[in-house]
Amino acid sequence: MIPLVRRQLARRARPLLARRYATPTKDPNPQLNGYPELPDVSAQYRPALGWQDKLLRRNFGETVHHHEEVNSMWGPDIPVIPPQQALRQFFIAAGCFVAAGLFMRSYLVPERPAVPREYPFGGLEKELGGHKANPEAESSDE
């Protein structure tokens, strides 16, 4: 059962790892101090069945990746669609909302049933105490 799972994992992970294995190997990472350098493949790509620990999708005694917190099942979710396509879909949806709002504002909002009220003498600025009627208050604000 385990070799079958490994073959399935290798088949699924091959497009992600093919380029890494095709490049010439570099010197081993001195920070790992001989710890095996495992490929950066998320456990979310592993099949759901066939593991001793079904929650983390791994077998007991399996070597833990040095970036286990990122590559484990509890790490960040793998995007279902590419980020460029997700961004394009987001902008299309936002544009549809803006277009619908502009359409409603220009065609569906009725005109005012009455004329707006107009006041004499510059909108009653002197009578209501506007900034031109009281120049001392404007200079004290500064």
From TrEMBL:
Chain segments carrying region Disordered:
120-142
Q: Which GO terms describe its cellular component?
A: mitochondrion
The protein's matches in Pfam families, at most eight in alphabetical order, are given as: NDUF_B8
Lineage, top ranks: Eukaryota, Fungi, Dikarya, Basidiomycota, Agaricomycotina
Question: Basic and acidic residues composition bias: which ranges?
Answer: 124-135
Q: Which domain of life is it from?
A: Eukaryota
State the name under which the record lists this protein.
Answer: Uncharacterized protein
